């Protein structure tokens, strides 16, 4: 075994909880050498600081303001050398069950030194958790999408996305100010965000809230006539396929009545 | 902190409660209208008869209510059966007495007096029976509500996080750890006392604590949360005008503060302010708690169970005299509670520990 200390990142919104973990790590120095290379008090800070810290293992509280621990873990899984993750929770029956089911490692607060040592020894070998396990473990949709650029995690809030468009290999995420390429499929996005987005075409999901109206497409032969979605605040027009039109029109109808 | 329990006689109504008085007024008048309409052919004649009768019924009714109000403490200390006999006797005496008052326009003949007495006795017994049934019907719901309240009261999340925070203090600041453990112990003592009380007195309804005790509990709870959340939690106390002797059901206020912290401060990355205002005005107690709102909170959305529970408990204690209201405005959530300021322990109250 290498004598090199394990590089750890500690994330918890309660300062006493972080110092408790540091104390325990100090106690375990002989048995399980580790150094704390970074700390964060909320989910956004973790995503901001962790990539540069070079941490191998992240001790991650689930109940944090900003972003929940599970969502933080999902965004981190986009990193090339993402850390192994040990979740920490005071009490969350749902989360604990999800961890068990998906073979994710976790500790219960108050954390015991022996349990912590065992989790760290294990984490040294396991590496980053599988994105699919994290996805299954999280209850409900994410609040943000993430794009990793040069080892930095860029977040786009779900509410800021106008539409997704599939092109060849990639899916383009269109936010108000710019576009991003993401590596997710329209099918899984449609499933996760069924209440936010609607399918208007085989290759396109549009945010329901962003739709400002519909227009008959100008020009073209009569039998190819189709409708286009108009968006709030941006000039983009998105074609609606004939297959999806009736469903899309229903939404328009509901809005008209509401 | 002691939890007091009021041993009301089995199902005897509280004649000093606004809700009980209102029910008596409505029921007697409805019965009188019914009797009048039954005695006279036709609706119009019936109402005319009732108007005549009312000249006698209303003063007798009010006098009975006042009398029962006055002797209520004595009634409460009697056995249930005896108390019922006394109630009916008081009503009959008043009815008989008022029938012979000199200003009664038509001196009653014997048949009329007999009718009045029978009507009064019947309605008194019917009302006593109804109010007893009502109290009984409420008690399973009450027990259920209290048990739910107990279970929901301290979130396990809070318990384990607090223990964790205290553990972290033991080495760095043993004195503070000691204080924090004492606070936690006090919180749990109150919970255990309540749990005992539930076990022993499943069938009974009323216990009161002093407002001062509830405020002490709030302060202990807040100091533990402060330890955990540090600068993120700011509690502003406006309790200088709180009537410390006012009585209220136990653990009414702590769940509100816990909710305010859980939904208003914990989900925020910035510092959050919670306002606690308690004051007495015009023989009523007003409580207000205000916290910030976090629309995108990752916390489980509140299902308002705590609030529904609280409303139910206050209603059972104070009937129509308590009010609970909430409002959301300017990014803040506000809960207001008001209830009558009762300071004297109702008669018959016993200490249970």
Structure write-up:
The complex is a heterodimer of chains A (258) and B (353). Chain A has helices at 15-27, 43-53, 69-76, 93-101, 113-126, 131-137, 186-192, 242-257, and strands at 6-11, 34-40, 57-61, 84-89, 105-108, 144-149, 152-157, 161-167, 170-175, 179-182, 197-201, 204-207, 211-216, 227-231, 237-240. Chain A is of the alpha/beta class. In chain A, the strands form four sheets. A five-stranded parallel sheet of chain A has the order 2-1-3-4-5, sandwiched between helices. A five-stranded antiparallel sheet of chain A has the order 10-9-8-12-11. The longest helix of chain A has 16 residues, at 242-257. Chain A is elongated, with a radius of gyration of 22 Å. The model of chain A has no long low-confidence stretch (mean pLDDT 88). Chain B has 353 residues and is an alpha+beta fold. Chain B has two domains: 4-135, no CATH class; 154-351, Histidine kinase-like ATPase, C-terminal domain (Heat Shock Protein 90). Chain B has helices at residues 18-39, 43-76, 80-99, 110-153, 156-172, 174-200, 211-229, 254-264, 305-318, and strands at residues 4-6, 207-210, 233-238, 247-248, 272-281, 284-292, 323-329, 332-340, 349-351. In chain B, strand 7 and strand 8 (332-340) form a beta hairpin. The chains are: A alpha/beta (258), B alpha+beta (353). The interface between A and B is medium-sized, with 26 and 27 residues.
